[in-house]
Design a protein that fits this description.
- By secondary structure, the chain is an alpha/beta fold.
- Helices cover 26% and strands 25% of the residues.
- The strands form 3 sheets. Strands 3, 4, 5, 6, 7, 14 and 15 form a 7-stranded mixed β-sheet that branches.
- Helix 5 packs across helix 6.
- The chain starts with a strand and ends with a strand.
- Pfam families: ADH_N, ADH_zinc_N.
């Protein structure tokens, strides 16, 4: 069996580069040779044991590459074609998919609901921080990369861009809305860009890292708030003349940011939650108006599938959003352990890391 290099989860606090068999594919699958991938905050949750995955699993869920081999029933693609696949790879056939929730794809059973069933790469099947990855249900998930777009230009589409945009989409941001985005990491920055594209005219980014606040302004933030400068809730209420915001997007996954997002909403406002939480959340009675304030708390998981990827790459190709500032560091796959060390500890101003085999 031919071998490849892959980043493998060994145990808590250990993801290592090792040899692994190149995946076999079935009739509905494709084998993609990875040309560029990246690290995600969710991968750090896996590394720290905050999100459980099987030992020996290849990590990573943001593939950009070239079709190496196609399953016998896959039509409309050719070997050697440049493609991406979303971090979420819905089958298109489950109850979840057919009711419009492809991100929650998975076994249809009567034994309970497991969230994020559509997230397979680096979760329930081997992922793409490797030289090759098997893409399941290739007809539903492979999307050709338009001519003229580089790997790095489309690298954010499989997850970060799709997730961030979905924060604004799920909350149905309207023309003229006010939006607060809590935490300007890569997902929060994409949420800023998504809110602008949806028509928000007041977009307030919350962080304390100057470089991220600068990028937020480039992507459409009209104001930035440094949480070290005082009470964030009071700062945002002052910027909105006491009204509060129409939509608050929580993009970090902590109790503190969740509560603050809830407290800055206008009556009837919407909290759009994108963070991955590692402990139980508490909903403060007063902030929630004892359940009587007409507030909405919404969650979403990165929409996937080839049509979603096509639309996101169309946004990139139109030059309406430039996410190139998010890629701050580049590593070879051979050095992925060093990339994890840098990314997990948020050193050297890192935002996103491009990994190339």
């Amino acid at each position: 069996m031919a071998k490849m290099k892959a980043a493998i989860f060994v145990e808590k606090n250990r993801i290592v580069l090792d040899d692994k068999d190149i995946p076999e594919i079935g009739p509905l699958d494709a084998l993609v040779r990875i040309t560029t991938t990246t690290l995600c905050g969710t991968d750090v949750h896996i590394l720290r044991g905050e999100y459980p995955v099987a030992k020996g699993l290849t990590i990573g869920h943001e593939p950009v590459g070239v079709i190496e081999r196609l399953g016998s029933q896959v039509r409309g693609f050719v070997e050697g074609q440049r493609v991406i696949a979303g971090a979420i790879t819905p089958s298109g056939q489950s109850y979840a998919c057919l009711c419009g929730c492809g991100a929650q794809d998975g076994p249809d059973t009567r034994h309970g609901f497991r969230a994020a069933g559509g997230w397979k790469f680096g979760n329930t099947i081997d992922g793409c921080q490797a030289e090759y990855v098997r893409v399941p249900d290739a007809l539903a998930n492979l999307c050709p990369i338009p001519d003229g777009l580089s790997d790095e230009q489309v690298l954010m589409c499989p997850d970060i861009m799709s997730t961030g945009f979905s924060g604004a989409e799920r909350a149905d941001v309207q023309i003229g809305d006010s939006v607060a985005v809590f935490a300007l990491g890569p997902i929060g920055l994409c949420a800023v860009a998504g809110a602008r594209l949806k028509g928000a005219t007041t977009i307030i980014g919350v962080d304390t890292v100057a470089a991220r606040m600068t990028v937020a302004r480039q992507l459409g933030a009209t104001h930035v708030v440094d949480f070290k400068d005082g009470d964030v809730v009071q700062q945002i209420l002052a910027l909105t003349d006491g009204r509060g915001v129409d939509v608050a997007i929580e993009a970090l996954g902590t109790q503190g940011t969740f509560e603050s997002a809830l407290r800055v909403l206008r009556p009837g406002g919407k909290l759009s939650s994108l963070g991955v939480y590692s402990t139980d959340l508490r909903i403060p009675l007063d902030a929630y108006g004892a359940g009587l304030a007409d507030l909405s708390i919404l969650s979403t998981l990165c929409p996937g599938g080839k049509e979603r990827m096509r639309r996101l790459m169309a946004v990139v190709a139109s030059a309406q959003v430039d996410l190139s500032p998010l890629v701050t560091h580049r590593f070879k796959l051979d050095d992925i352990e060093a990339a994890y060390e840098l990314f997990a500890h948020q050193r050297d101003g890192v935002m996103k890391v491009a990994i190339t085999p």
